[in-house]
Design goal:
This protein is an alpha+beta fold. The protein has helices spanning 3-28, 181-209, 215-241, 251-270, 278-300, 302-305, 307-310, 319-345, 357-381, 385-398, 414-417, 421-433, 441-465, 469-472, and strands at 34-38, 46-50, 56-62, 67-76, 85-92, 97-104, 112-123, 129-135, 146-150, 160-161, 164-165, 169-170, 172-179. The strands form 2 sheets. Strands 1, 2, 4, 7, 9, 12 and 13 form a 7-stranded antiparallel beta sheet that branches. It has a 6-stranded antiparallel beta sheet with strand order 6-5-8-3-10-11, with no helix packed on it. Helix 4 packs across helix 5 (278-300) and helix 12 (421-433) packs antiparallel against helix 13. The two termini are 36 Å apart.
Length: 473
Amino acid sequence: MNIKYLQKACALILALFLLSALLFYWVQGSQIHYRESQTVAVDPAAPIGELTRDIELRQPFTAETDEIIAVSVLLSTYARENSSHLDISIEDSAGAVLVQTEVLSSEIADNAVRRIDFPAPVRIMSGAQYNLILTSPDSVSGNAISAWSGAPLSAEQLLYVNGEKTDQTLHYQLHLRTQSWLSSAYWYLVAAATLLMAAYFCYFIRAAKNNRMTFALRMLLILQRYGYLMKQLIGRDFKTRYKRSVLGVCWSFLNPLLTMLVQYIVFSTLFRSDIPNFQLYLLVGIVCFNFFSEATGVALQAIVGNASLITKVYVPKYIYPVSRVLSSGINLLFSVILLFIMMVFTRTPFRPALVFVPFGLICLLALCIGMGFILSTAMVFFRDTQFLWGVVSMLWMYATPIFYPETIIPARLMPLYKCNPMYHVIRFLRTIFLDGAAPLPKAFLFCGIACFVPLLLGTLVFKKNQDKFILNL
């Protein structure tokens, strides 16, 4: 083992880690400093009435937060284009105005929730009493809008109209921002991780100098020894898939594209899906699940299909399912190119958050390898696994929000849905492709846990049973 090569490789890994940490900090922007949320709005019952110059709506509220960045209110225009203004302000309990802004009534849609962003975040004390005030000083009857109200959630937050308490609550939502613990701890965590990695690399290089075998060194030697074989297996599997096919590798584009077109016609026309940018929404789900279904399907046959090699030549057995999944990964890369083409077609802007796409793909790859280990092991001892997996994968597809929005999932079933690793992967990638936003830090954590835990379990199952394969092939 070349020690100088190892030293350079370890230094490169450390440099890439620090570069990734800087990139993550830059792309995440305010999300790494703040955690955004919103209050619960009451169910709207009826409009309060025209908000003319002699009317003041005063809504008391408390919020467990540090800052308020916006407020959303359900408003009506009576289907006319009013020329007045809506003034929104927040006062503390002493009557001091913390913020004030205005909106043209002509810019307000009828019977729609309007979000009003404040010029700057409003600093408040968590749990203290404040008032949200709506007025329209230049409006008269026939040239005014109306706000909606509903049954109150608590007796302490009843709406006041011109100082008189009502039995209703304004239909509103506060958009809140709380300081994130990650804001102050991020660079400490990066420094701690860097030191741990540097310490391990020093231990690793020292062990290599003393010819002492460690897990990492053993994996590196295996990769060096069998890397060429794995490359040949991946190439063989990929070429075999398109052997005697007229279109060949073009099916990597056509398969998800045609599936998307069929499902788009069905769900956007017959069932009238209202999901924004439904083409891209659907294609992200199809690309991810098609790869998952294909990779696990071919990995399932990895050990049984290579029985003649396994019984004659010694090769680490995990190479076979891993090579099958990686050969399917080539199709995944072509499909991701299709996603970028679809972004151009749907005029979806390209944003810096796209740099996080590889993280989602690596998680998806890890999940498929883990499932491939489990399925290929089960196939050796129970040949009906291939038929059962066909049914299970179909159920798994319908249990994943691919062609329907996750908003239709009942709240009581959401904990069960969140146990689905594909839910986290697809949601992670949709946030990047559709919203152009970097996923929240917890999304990285959930996506990583949901995919690398099955990889760990699959590795343990495969390692425990691999010595028994030869007896059942």
